[in-house]
Amino acid sequence: MRARPFLLLADYDGTLVPIRSAPALARLDPATRRLLRRLSQRRGVRLGLISGRSLPELRGMVRVPGALYVGNHGLELQGPGVRFLHPQARRAAPVLVRIAAMLRRVLRPIPGAWVESKRLSLSIHWRAIRRADRARFQREVRGAVSPWVASHRVRVTTGKRVVEIRPPVAWDKGAIVEWLMKRYRCPQGGVIYFGDDRTDEDAFRAVNRAGGISVFVGAPRAATAARWRVRGPRQVRNVLHRLEVRSA
Ligand SMILES: [Mg+2]
Q1: CATH code where residue 121 lies
Q2: Which residue, 111, 145, 166, sits at the end of a domain?
Q3: Most CB contacts within 10 A, which of 57, 116, 130, 204?
Q4: SS3 164
Q5: How far is ligand 1, taken at its centre, from the CA of residue 139, in Å?
Q6: Which chain residues have CB less than 5 Å from ligand 1, an ion?
Q7: Which candidate, 23, 36, 30, places its Cα nearest to that of 65?
Q8: CA-to-CA distance for 127 and 241, rounded, in angstroms?
Q9: Can you tell me the distance from the alpha carbon of 213 to that of 199, in angstroms, rounded to the nearest whole number?
Q10: How far is the CA of 107 from the centre of ligand 1 (A)?
Q11: Is 155 exposed, middle or buried (0-12, 13-18, 19+ CB in 10 A)?
Q12: Active-site positions?
C-alpha cells in the first residue's frame, strides 16, 4: 500500500501568475515551473492545479508532467492514473455551443467583450470593455442566458471580470477538492490550497473542514473563508520554496 500523499493544490490565474488583460498572457515564469516540477517529483507530495480554464489549456500553460490538472472549476480532471469528467457536464456541452453562438452575435457590437468556449463551460470576459458599455453588456448577457437558466439547462456565476456559464450541477472547486482528498485517502490536515477568487472559497471551506491549510492570495478582504493570506503570486512562490526546503 502506498503512503498517503500530501495534497498541494493551487489555482492558476491570480494565484501562480498575475491576472493579465488577456488569459493567454498569463504565463507561468520558468522559475515557478521548475519549482513546481521539483515539488511534483517529491515522494509523498501530489501536486494539483485547479482552474476555471479548460483542462487542455491549463495543462498547456503549466506544463508540469506528473501533476493533476483540474479544469472547468472541477468538472474535468486528469492526472497520473486518474481521470474524471462530470456526467452532467458532458450532457450540457451541446447547449453551451448554442449559447456561445448567440452570445457572440449579441456581444459583437461591444468592443472588448469576448466569449471563450471551454467546452464544458463558457467564460464571457469583460475586463477589456469600456465603462460606458458595461450596462449594455450585462443586459445582453442576461437576455441571452436567462431562458436557459430558467429551464435549468445552465447556471451563471461571476468571477473577476468574467461571467461564467456552467452546467446546472452542484459541483465546484470544493467538491473536486473533496473528491481528491477521498481518492488519495488524504489524512486529516494533509492538504494545502492556494486561491485568489470567489470560486476558490468553496475549496477553502473544504480544506478547512479537513483541517488543512487554506491560503487566500490577494489584498486583505473580510469575506474569505481562508485561514491564511499572502499578498500575491510572488509570495505564493516564496511559500512553495519554503515547503520545498522543509520537505527535503
Ligand atoms: Mg484565480
Answers
A1: 3.30.70.1020
A2: 166
A3: 204
A4: strand
A5: 25
A6: 11, 13-14, 196-197
A7: 36
A8: 32
A9: 17
A10: 24
A11: middle
A12: 11
Tell me, in angstroms, the distance from the centre of ligand 1 to residue 17's CA. 9
Which range of residues forms the domain containing residue 133? 87-166
Give the pLDDT band of residue 1 (cuts 50, 70, 90): very low
| Strand ranges, E, within the chain | 6-10, 45-50, 68-71, 76-79, 82-85, 114-117, 122-125, 155-159, 162-166, 191-195, 213-217, 228-230
- Distance from the alpha carbon of residue 3 to the mean position of ligand 1, in angstroms: 30
Domain CATH for 235: 3.40.50.1000
pLDDT band at 4 (very low <50, low <70, confident <90, very high): confident
- Measuring CA to CA, how many Å separate 223 from each of 5, 198, 229? 30, 9, 12
Distance of CA 146 to the CA centre of its chain: 24
Alpha carbons 194 and 184: distance in angstroms, whole number: 19
Closest CA relative to residue 57, chosen from 27, 34, 36: 27
